[in-house]
Every structure is written in structure tokens, then in C-alpha cells.
Amino acid sequence: MSSSEEKGGIGLNVPDKEASPPPAFDGGPGDQARDHEDFMTRNGLNLRSFQKRDYGSGTVVDSLDRSLRTRHMHMIAIGGSIGAGFFVGSGRALNNGGPGTLLIDFLIIGIMMFNTVYALGELAVMYPVSGGFYTYSTRFIDPSWGFAMGWNYVMQWAVVFPLELTVCAMTVGYWNSEISVAVWISLFFALILIINIFGTLGYAEEEFWSSVLKLVAIIVFMVIAFVLVLGGGPSGSRYDEYYGARLWYDPGAFANGFRGFCSVFVTAAFSFSGTELVGLAAAEARNPLKSLPGAIKQVFWRITLFYILGLFFVGLLIPHDDENLLGANPYADVNASPFVLVGKYANLTGFDSFMNVIILVSVLSIGVSSVYGGSRTLTALAQQGYAPKIFTYIDRSGRPLMSVIFICAFGPLAYVNLHADGPTVFDWLLALSGLAALFTWGSICLAHIRFRKAWAAQGHTLDEIPFRAIGGVYGSYIGLAINILVLVAQLFVAICPVGGGFNDAEGFFKSYLALPVVMAFWVGGFLWKRTGWLRTDQIDVDTGRRELDWDSINEYRAKLAAMPPWRRVLWTLFV
């Protein structure tokens, strides 16, 4: 492969007119149908909005609502999936591996996510389809594997939904533990249903404002943490003298050796789950070609500023052997959140409650995202004949109504926590979702690798790709390799847990249940469709490509080429 084929970023040469992509997507029948509806119907506020939409000669996914704006896309990318995994799960991860392991593992997963999201952005700009992760696997890897990835993604979000309802209820219990958890589960379940009545716009606005709140809170935390590390805490608190990096020496930067190092990966993966939703949302954006590349670039800031820097401060302020980090449920006990503990130990009145409000908003946000991500993927599966056709139902306001109802039907599983064996069920649900995202991310990287190979083999050049992954195909190889390594590391932990010794069968499957489930889906897809690995000459890279304004693209590339090198790098990475 030539060096020109490996460059990431934005190409600068003008493509051949003959090589320009064929027409594919315009505003679509969804936009046209929406424009002819009244305000109440467009926004899902009357009974007429629930009637089936007539999308004429277009496809089912073309008829989805396309009301996502650039500001929505940017905030979904930078703050959309920051939730319990980051705010609460990081406490258990700190306890298992120590601050050094926490930082290294999250950095490794961050590198993988950076390359994965760029690969997804390249594919999503060219092939704007709802349920994109599944369709890219079907198109560029193997239809049977695509079937497995589609159902794996639906299952992931269907299981996460009741989990998030449970965490919401437990978070409120921080202030009042006497009220039944069922009351709060019902309240938040109803709230998520109300948000979904507004369809894509409801999801977009909720994600935008919750992301703004989360990011402001994390920035506030980091400013306060910086002051505390320097010894600026209130008199009589733990941080009323210079604190520095003492906890990296005593009790130490690493805990539980190699087992501890491997165990933190699954928490890091869970914390990043949902990052890929920005690619899924691209199918419902008003102008994906404009908004998606900018949104993808925001992921860099999220990984470096919020995850890495935020957890670095956590490791400086909370010892990994803190008794409050021990024995807590890794995703549901807000008392074990290191962000809450910092406020407690600093004697900052109200800060712990403030961080719990942020955790509550974050968890609720993930609950809304689970309905959105699961329903859109299920609709795409149904369109391709991989799910019952009833799930292709799109109503007049652009909602995939039956798919939304299907995902919401999993919500009542949250009530099993009222039973004495509820925590056991919670653990099994968590086992189903913990590693599911890794298969999705690995498939995105592999699909990008296969796409690039087929693209070159069929005589196309990189100049015909409007937005290119910054790491090129090498970045996708790195992302795929890290995904495989994390799965191997988690297999090791499933056999040899952090506590020592060896796991029994129950302990193993609680740590590694996602793999046999994915394999079962793959076998099921093969038996149903009887298709296997696609050869390079079988991959279709032309059908369904977006119609592009090459004059504007070339004008932008010329503008980029005229910049000084340092400014060109900054512009390519961040703008």
C-alpha cells in the first residue's frame, strides 16, 4: 500500500470528476414528510403523530426524523456517554488497580476509542445509515457477523436500560434511603418515556443540556482538585496541607499486580460505552457532512481533558485502599464514587450532593441514550430482514415507534432489585453488557480496514474520501489490536480474579458472558443467512454513497493547504 493511502486527515488534491461519488442521500422523504406536518404532529404531541409515516420510494431509515443540529452532534460526542462507569465505576477500578493502573488503562482505551471513532466518522460520512455499526459489518466483513453485531448492540442497550434505572434510584437513596427504590425507578422510567415521546429532538436536547452540565461539573471538580492537591483545602480537612503525589508512594501507584492491571480494562471499556453513538446519530442529522467531522474531533478533548485528567486528580486525592471503595457495587453505589469522596474528605459542604446530582443526570442521560441507540439499530436490522418487519414502523413524527416500545419493555427488569436476589440479577445483566461494546468497536475498526482494502482494489483513491481517519488504516489496526488485547486481558481476569486463586463457573461467566452470547448470535446469523467472510472483490463500495458537494470540499482543502504547518495540524485535529 502506498504512503498516500495511509495518510489520515483531510486530503488536498482535487478528485477526478468521473470518480466523484454517485448521488445517494439528500434530505430524504423523512424531511419532506416532516415539513408537511403540523407542529404537534412533528413533535409527537398528538395521537396523529403515532400513525405510520408514508415514506414512498425511500427506505425505512430515510424516513427517520432528521432534526439533529451541529451543536447536538458536538455535545453528544464530547459528553454524551459520561455516566456511572466514569463517576462511580472508577472507584472500584481505583481499588483494584491503583492510580497508576487507572491512568494507564484508561489511556490505552482512550487511544483505541480515538482511532475507532475516527474510523467510524470516515464510514458514516460516506455511508449515512441508521444502525451504522451493524450495517458496516454486514457490508464490509461478513453478513453473519453483521447480524451478530446488530443484535449484540440491541441487547447491550436493552440490558443497560434497566441497569441505569436501578442506578438512578440508588443515587437518590443517597439523600433518603427510606423511600422504596420502586418509587424512584417508576419516576425515572416515566421521565425517560416522556423524553422519548419527543423522538430524536427530545434525545438531542436532553443530551445537549445534560452534556453541558456534566462537562461544567467535571471542570469545576478539576479546578477544586487542583487546589486541594496544592493544599488549599479548608482548615482541618484532609487537604489542608500540600498533598502532591504522596498517594502514589503510599499506599502506592499499583495494586494487585498484573491481575489488577487487567481488571481495570473492563471498567474503562464500560466507561467509554456510548462514544460511538455520535456515528449512529449522524443518520438523523440535518447536515452530517458538516456536523459529523467536527463532532468526531471533540472526542480528543473528552478523552484527554475529562477522562485522563479527571482520573489523574482522583488518583492523587483518594488512596486505592480507602475502605469506602471496598465491597461496593462497582456501578450502583454512589457512596463509592471517588468524586463524591473528595468532597467529603475536603469538608466541602454540599459538594458531595452536587456531584450526586451530576451522577444522577449522567445516569439518566445514558438511560435515554440506551433507548435511542437500541431502537435505531433494531429498526435497521428489521429493514435488512434480520428482525421482524414490525420494527420498521416509523410514525409521522419520525420515531421508530415499535423499536422504542421494544427497548422500553426491558425497563421493568429494574424492579427485580426489590427482591432479595435482585443484586444477583443485576450482576448478570451487567455481565451481558460489560464487554458488548468491545465487539462493536473492534468490528468498526475491522470494517474500516476492509473498506480501505476494497476501496483501493476497485480503483478508488483516498482523495475521493471527504473525511479521512486521522490515523489512516494503521489507526484502525491499532484500535482492533487493543480491542483483542482487552478481551484477552478480561479472559485472564475471568479465570484468575483480582482476589487471588481461580474463578468458579459462575464467576467466569459473570466476567465473560458477552463472548458466548456474541458467538451464539454469529452462529444463528450463519444458519439463517448462510453467508460467510466477504472477499475483497465481493465488497460493494459504491451503492448508497452520499452525494457530495466537491466544490466546497476542494475549497476547504485548498484553504487548509495554504495554512502554516502548525496551524494546519491544529485545524485538522480540533476544528
TrEMBL record:
Q: Domain named Amino acid permease/ SLC12A: which ranges?
A: 72-532
Annotated compartments: Membrane
Give the region (Disordered) as residue ranges.
1-37
- What keywords does the record list, in alphabetical order? Amino-acid transport, Membrane, Transmembrane, Transmembrane helix, Transport
Quote the InterPro entries the UniProt record gives: AA-permease/SLC12A_dom, Amino_acid_permease_CS, APC_YAT
- Pfam families in alphabetical order: AA_permease (PF00324)
Domain of life (superkingdom): Eukaryota
Q: What is its main location?
A: membrane
Recorded GO cellular component terms are:
membrane
Its membrane topology:
Multi-pass membrane protein
Which GO molecular function annotations are given, in alphabetical order?
Answer: amino acid transmembrane transporter activity
Membrane-spanning intervals of the chain: 75-94, 106-129, 150-175, 181-203, 215-233, 299-318, 354-374, 398-416, 428-449, 470-495, 507-528
Mind telling me which PANTHER family this protein's record contains? AMINO ACID PERMEASE, AMINO ACID TRANSPORTER (EUROFUNG)
* Name this protein carries in UniProt: Amino acid permease/ SLC12A domain-containing protein
Name the source organism. Answer: Parathielavia hyrcaniae
